[in-house]
Specification:
The protein is an alpha/beta fold. Helices cover 22% and strands 29% of the residues. The longest helix is centred in the last third of the chain and has 13 residues.
């Protein structure tokens, strides 16, 4: 079984091969007597995504989420068989809910990557989560605060890591509270550069922006363009991974020429 699995993995395209190699071997199916299979160790998956629903909160710069019933179990007949199926029309920004910004969003340079052009490997990475839950609402997080949080975590930022920044924002301000769109803390311009200097490829926050409203937010977006990194907005449940190292998976919708992509963000704890 192991040799066949090895041959199968080696025959995969390069991107898939590297992804499979990064999965712990205890997660692979093991052959058992009678051709039965089992998984030696089941990894713990933690959903880091926000729920999307009709009129769920959106950034003021973007259109609202609109979910409209299109066909709700109306009977359809083919011969003697009746089918009752449901579908909904969904209208939203490519920055709705939990999503990642493509370089095209904050980089006006011709040729800046759209979401469908970003390497899929960018969204399957090692990750850590830093605890900044003590910061005040609307606060701008300094490099010193990031350094202290990293030291307290006992982790290190490795080249290519995704770094989540837990600010306990969702626990302090309900999702449907108008303050959720305005009172979030976030990173300073210097903190964004610090993450890039450390080798982070992506960072993630709970709020709808990576930095507080106004100029700090614009500066943070521009810095991402300058440094060739990006960020995820609208994360949830980061308290479950704070101060931990884990595998992050968050694959955005493949939207042609999209400036961002809604995703189902997941942490895998071994």
């Amino acid at each position: 079984m192991a040799s066949r699995l090895t041959r199968s993995v080696e025959s995969m395209p390069g991107s898939l091969r590297s992804m499979y190699r990064s999965v712990p071997t205890t997660c692979f199916l093991q052959a058992r007597r009678g051709n039965a299979t089992t998984i030696d160790k089941k990894p713990k998956l933690i959903d880091l995504s926000r729920e999307l629903y009709h009129r769920s909160p959106a950034h003021p710069f973007h259109p609202p989420v609109v979910l409209t019933p299109w066909d709700v179990h109306q009977p359809k007949r083919a011969g003697n068989t009746v089918l009752r199926s449901a579908s909904y029309a969904l209208s939203m920004s490519d920055h709705a809910g939990t999503h990642v910004d493509a370089p095209k969003h904050f980089d006006p340079t011709p040729g800046a990557l759209s979401i469908d052009q970003m390497p899929i490997e960018d969204f399957y990475t090692e990750a850590i989560c830093l605890d900044l839950s003590h910061v005040e609402l609307k606060a701008t997080i300094s490099v010193k605060e990031m350094e202290d949080a990293l030291a307290a975590s006992g982790q290190e930022i490795k080249q290519g890591d995704t770094v989540m920044v837990y600010m306990a924002f969702n626990k302090r301000v309900p999702f449907d509270d108008p303050r959720w769109q305005h009172d979030f803390p976030g990173l300073s311009l210097e903190a964004v550069h610090w993450l890039a200097d450390k080798g982070a490829k992506i960072f993630g926050v709970e709020a709808i922006s990576p930095a507080p409203e106004g100029e700090p937010n614009f500066q943070a977006h521009n810095a991402c363009g300058e440094r060739g990194i990006t960020h995820i907005e609208g994360l949830d449940n980061l308290d479950a991974v704070v101060n931990k190292r884990f595998r992050f998976m968050g694959f955005p919708l493949k939207i042609r020429e999209g400036s961002g992509g809604p995703m189902r963000a997941v942490a895998l704890l071994e």
